[in-house]
Amino acid sequence: MKFPAAQSILLIIAALVTILTWLIPAGSYNSLSYNTSSDQFSIQSQDSSYNLSASQASLEQLNIKIPLEKFTSGAIYKPISIPNTYQELAPRPQGVIDFLSAPIKGIIEAADIIFLVLIIGGMIGIMNVTGAFNAGMSWLSKALKGREFLLIIFTTLLISLGGSTFGLAEETLAFYPILIPIFIAAGYDSMVGLASIFLGSAIGVMCSTVNPFATIIASDAAGISWTSGLEGRMIIYVICMAVTIIYILIYAKKVKKNPAKSLVDAEGTKSLSYINEAGKENEIPLTLRLRAILLIFTACFVIMIMGVSQWDWWFVEMTTVFFAGSIVIGFIAKMKESAFINSFIQGAGDLLGVAFIIGLARGITILMNDGLISDSILFYASEFTTGMNKGVFVNVLFFIYQGLTFFIPSSSGMAVLTMPILSPLADNVNIGREVIVNAYQLGNGLFNSISPTGLVLASLGLVKIGYEKYLKFMLPLYAILALIGMVFLTILSY
Fold first, then answer.
1. Are 409 and 459 in contact (CB under 8 A)?
2. Using the 8-state DSSP alphabet, how is residue 46 labeled?
3. Ramachandran angles phi, psi of 51, nearest 5°
4. Which stretch of DSSP H or E encloses residue 88?
5. Range 295-300, long-range pairs (CB < 8 A, 24+ positions)
6. Which whole-number Å values give the CA distances from 123 to 200, 281, 420, 458, in the listed order?
7. 476 exposure class (CB count in 10 Å sphere: 0-12, 13-18, 19+)
8. How far is CA 68 from CA 61, 75, 387, 448, in A?
9. What totals of helices (H) and strands (E) does the chain contain, helices first?
10. pLDDT tens digits, the chain, 494 residues: what are they?
11. Residue 216 Cα distances to 63, 73, 426, angstroms
């Protein structure tokens, strides 16, 4: 079975979500946010808003079990849902105009990520002209001969550590142009490279240990210390990453031994803009100038990672690094102004399809929010678990989080929306709230490894692999990780 293109899949999902706004009752929770300038809490409902003093007493009055300093320190910076305030609202079904405008709104709202992708595309266009990729791949294929499997282990492990510790996710879109040619040169297919990068990040985030955008935000919103349950999260990280790496290695060994076993369309791989130069047979000597170009190219990624993890950078700063790197590479390569501009524009154009995928995915979230069904889905999910045995409860919650992730792929967005509502349910079944945090992380992270509303379609677009091919590769691993997660959560609940 061949799936439609990624953009078509997202438009189909957007159409289904539009229909759901006619079927699911509209509703919302009141939300609370902290105003740093006035040092007050702002309470927002659909028809009114008012302020409360920023005190622990105000939080207790609202039945929010979160220490005040989590708001004043900036640890919780997004509005959170207030428990027991859900109310049904007048329906706001989305129509044809809303459906058609949602992708446009999504592209505008996701402009920060989109411009990062386009600028990186421009940089790749310039790199292709210099011949640095070709020279670098020739050298690397010789250096790795006989030890190619180390590339899989180290890439997956390092990226997963980034995902587990500081939420490395969207930033991995920048890694494909530099790493996929290396995997091709090592004798693997692009699925191996995709799995090492994307699953390294996805499973790392799924098993977050100290990730501020998942573990810490969720723990804060649940009213517990982020260190609660840390030992268990470290154990599940080691287990899941070992399983994932072994799974990739088994597939990689099979493909290397017999390329006919590959799930990837070879023609699609050859059409990748950053493979065209790197994959040619003719060798280019790795001169001092080309070494300097590769050094600048690699340094941009290192600086980006340092900026995100150490200096609170976000997309504007990350994009600026790649833009500046492009200019420096152009000077080192002594490119003419017209050649530089044309190469940059052509490279950015090659990734325009990926940019549209990102915007379309964001548009689906906009449709749900405008149709007032996001909070309704959360409310019915919390009602469904009432009165369950704790072992059954935590596993049902694990699957509920997977379902919610289809509608709310963001880990931080999921945490602030659901934790104030779902974490108190732990008290009713006599389990620790850290178990709810773990169920959220495992459910959200696992489903994001296949969710078309997350990063997977954008990643597939960068390597030109069909969604159906990826699912064929991923679903057995998905089932294994789901079973591991269920066993882990069941043990923790008793």
1. no
2. S
3. -110, 150
4. strand 87-88
5. 296/325, 296/328, 296/329, 296/332, 297/123, 297/127, 297/132, 297/178, 297/325, 297/329, 298/178, 299/325, 300/123, 300/325
6. 24, 23, 43, 18
7. exposed
8. 13, 10, 31, 31
9. 25, 6
10. 566 776 787 788 889 989 999 999 999 888 888 888 888 889 988 778 888 888 888 888 888 777 788 788 766 667 878 888 888 888 999 999 999 999 899 889 888 878 877 887 788 788 878 877 667 666 766 676 777 788 899 889 888 988 888 677 776 777 787 788 888 888 889 999 999 999 999 999 999 987 767 887 788 777 777 788 888 999 999 999 999 999 999 999 999 888 888 998 776 666 676 665 444 444 567 788 888 888 888 788 778 777 866 777 777 888 898 899 999 999 998 888 888 999 888 888 877 877 787 788 778 878 988 998 888 887 887 788 777 788 889 999 999 999 888 877 878 778 877 887 787 777 667 788 889 999 999 999 999 999 888 888 888 988 889 899 999 999 999 999 999 999 999 998 87
11. 20, 13, 18
- Angle subtended by helix axes 467-493 and 390-407, to nearest 10: 150
Burial class for 2, CB neighbours closer than 10 Å (0-12, 13-18, 19+): exposed
**What tokens does 331 get?**
């000077």
What separation in angstroms does the CA of 85 have from each of 45, 88, 221, 379, 425? 9, 10, 16, 10, 15
Tokens 């011949």 belong to 131
Nearest partner of 203 among 171, 164, 230, judged by Cα: 164
Phi, psi dihedrals of residue 397, rounded to the nearest 5°: -65, -35
Tracing tokens 């879109």 back to the chain, one arrives at: 173
* Cα 53 to Cα 316: distance, rounded to the nearest angstrom: 34
Domain extents for the chain?
30-85, 102-207+261-335
**For the residues of 121-169, what is the DSSP string, one character each?**
HHHHHHHHHHTHHHHHHHHHHHHTTT-THHHHHHHHHHHHHHHHHH---
Helices (H), 173-229: 176-185, 190-194, 200-206, 217-222
Q: Which residues contact 347 (CB under 8 A, 6 or more apart)?
A: 121, 122, 123, 124, 125, 126, 128, 273
The first and second tokens of residue 80, run together, are: 């959170």
Model confidence, pTM: 0.72
Give the Cα separation of 93 and 354 in Å (integer): 29
Q: How far apart are alpha carbons 68 and 223 in whole angstroms? A: 10
User: Are the CB atoms for 151 and 243 separated by under 8 Å?
Assistant: no
Instruction: Name which of 99, 46, 97, 91 is nearest 367 in CA terms.
Output: 99
Please, are residues 292 and 130 in contact by the beta-carbon 8 Å criterion?
no
